[in-house]
Give the backbone structure.
Amino acid sequence: MASFLCYLMSTRLLFLIPLLHAIATNCFASRQPVLCHDDESSALLQFKQSFDWNLNSCFDPSDYRPKISSWKVEGVDTDCCSWDGVECNKETGHVIGLDLSSSCLYGSMLSNSSLFSLVRLQRLNLAHNNFNFSQIPSGFGHLSRLTYLNLSDSSFSGQIPSKFSKLSKLTSFDLSDNYMLDLRSLKGLVQNLTSLEDLSLGYVQIPSPVPEILANLSSLRTLDLTGCGMYGEFPVGIFKLPKLQVLWVDSNQFLMGNLPEFYSSSPLKSLSLRGTNFSGKLPDSIGNLNSLNELWMGDCNFSGHIPSSLGTLLELRVLILRRNGLYGAVGSPTTIFASPKLHILDLSSNKFTGKLPFEYFQIWKYMKKIDADNFTYMLEFTSILSCGYAVYQYYPYSMKIINKGREIMYSRIIEVFATIDLSSNEFNGKVSEFIGNLNGLQLLNLSNNNLTGHIPLSLGELTTLESLDLSQNKLSGQIPWQLTKLTFLGSFNVSNNQLTGLIPHGYQFDTFENSSFAGNLGLCGKPLSKKCENHEQAPLPSSGIKEVQDSWFHMEFDWKIILPGYVSGLIIGVVVGNVVTEKMQCWFVRTRRRQLKR
């Protein structure tokens, strides 16, 4: 009996050994990395060889290290799945993602490019390269599995291929900043792209009305049609898209429309209608946009009063309403100045009246000095979950500031940038000493109003101020010597007031020209030719330099003359350029928005 049991157990053990061996083999095999396929590796190398690496084509020339430099057929990293910018399916080894953005690629994109043999691609990013104004090949239409496609700022030209409309799985599509691209039919492009979440066509030439079909894209979160030459009536249904967060249709001069009634369910964060022909009144329901943090509506044809509900938008950071037909008081009972995060405010060139409610300036914490050792650039940010991938998008802003006929260009705006422009209105009363509490301001323009009284001594506390314009008012008294503490002050104008006494000198004041002080018959001293009698220069503040050095904004400025036109490239720090122009175009200008995958 015992021998039978031993025989039975031995038989079962012999049966289990092959099974255990198979299991162990499978487990071991599953831990081995799956190498990329030879045909796809070859296709990538052919694509690499079809372009030059040109430093002038780099998005950031200071970081010249093209991703394709790691693509090699010899050495350690011969597996294309380990190459920079290449993403493979971990189970099959097929190439499913390719990110060659900002890779300094230079050359024409050909219709027979080996890129189009990578038919399993789901994500493709070729942004910020230089494809030598070649046409976009229709071969992109063969990559039918694409969910993300970014060809922005890559120097393409000609007609956009109709085959793009076949990429029905696209959720993110970006052709922006290709100024020589033309699109015959926006409706034809998007009619099959029903899953779109992000559509960016800024500065692509689309001389046509905005198609109603865009209002059917219920998943749309970002729509950028900036500077496309579009015209006609803007479909009001687009404002009501349930997931829309970013809507930019600015710089379309002949695009018309009115603002609809807004609902609290709207997730809208950034709205730009600047430089369009939108008109009508601003609806009270704009206060329902609880997520709104940027409102760019300068250079339009809006009229009437500013709705007090704007003051209830607690997330509002940027408010640009310059050059409209707006009028009336902006103070109590509920004021637009009540938004605590506001740090860029431009109400210039309207017909606003009354006294400035300086008491509200106390709550603007973003206009006060903060710890900026780790300051960041001001970016509009959205995150889109697409087919298991998180697509992060950043929209850096630029700003152009006009003072005394000169434009100062900031290529990128840091998060803590703070500016107020209330010029060319009908505000009256005195400038309150409360203004000195906003000691993080970089720019202050109160010119061309009816302000009276003395220049507040507290302005001397704005030690980060770079531009101050109080011209064309009725200010009286002396120019406070405390302003000589403003050692960052590069532009200063108090012309055409009723100021008297000796012009302070020292530090920045020794650099200002006659035009800064003209039209004040009682002023004397340099740089004016009128000499002073029985006037003594007030002592310079002994602690002025020390205070600036201790401030958060201590950095070296690189003053450069910037040629007219677009200023491109990443700028570390702040570059200030003075551009002399015949016409003052606009105070705030958002220029080329680069969408970067981080």
